[in-house]
Amino acid sequence: MAVLPERFNRIKNVLNKRIQNLTVLVEAVNKPHNLSAILRTCDAAGVFNANFICANNEVKTFNSTAQGSQKWVNLINHPTSTEAVSELKKKGFKLYGTTLNHKAKDYREFEYTSDTCFVLGSEKWGLSEGLINKVDEYIFIPMSGMVQSLNVSVATSILLFEAIRQRQFKGLIPKNGEGLDKKEYENKLFEWSYPELVDSYKRSNKPYPSLKENGEINFKI
């Protein structure tokens, strides 16, 4: 059954604004509520990929807070912090780690208009020493009250939307899919439009078919 035109247009409009060079790396955040809120923020900000360090290659179950956002944000699992950092730096990302150490600077002092990854740690302990030593810059969100830090999902929201604000000011928010690689865009458009067909194509190792302007599958004879 073909995707409805209204649904297809909504999917395209969202995908057209997705950003591949802005992401997060989350370490040891185990509460489903926080994970769900982070994913929901990523979706709202237009983030295409979200990175998690999870030894079992499986992010903890998301709860209703996610509002289905895990379907619209690509989740990338990394078994170790070393592999996560290596992969992200290989892709050209600059890593900004949230920490309260003496080298950390106010997050507003930096520009986040190029390849940016915000690195956030657990609800209780923050980033591990091993990961802190691997980031490129140390940042913190200034507090005026008695508490030293915000909930990890709230901090994620502040950082991502600061990056979005800066990019909007410079006219760098994609409008027509230019924020993604062409092949990545086409694949994701099919997966979002026809999720029920994805597994069968992957099992058969066949490439996804192209889609017509109205969203119908372009079956080639």
Helix coverage percent: 25-40%
Mean pLDDT, to the nearest integer, reads 91
Write the CATH homologous superfamily of the largest domain.
Answer: SPOUT methyltransferase, trefoil knot domain
Please give the domain count: 2
Helix- and strand-based class?
alpha/beta
CATH class of the largest domain reads Alpha Beta
* End-to-end distance: 18 Å
> Can you tell me the CATH architecture of the largest domain?
3-Layer(aba) Sandwich
Strand order of the largest sheet: 3-2-1-6-4-7-5
CATH third-tier fold name of the largest domain: Alpha/beta knot
Overall shape: globular
Question: Would you kindly provide a written description of the structure presented here, covering whatever features stand out?
Answer:
By secondary structure, the chain is of the alpha/beta class. The protein folds into 2 domains: 1-18 and 176-221, no CATH class; 20-169, SPOUT methyltransferase, trefoil knot domain (Alpha/beta knot, 3-Layer(aba) Sandwich). The chain contains 7 helices and 7 strands. The model has no long low-confidence stretch (mean pLDDT 91).
Short description:
With 221 residues, the protein is α/β, with parallel strands linked by helices. It has helices at 5-16, 32-45, 81-90, 129-132, 152-169, 182-193, 195-203, and strands spanning 22-27, 49-53, 74-78, 94-98, 105-106, 116-120, 137-140.
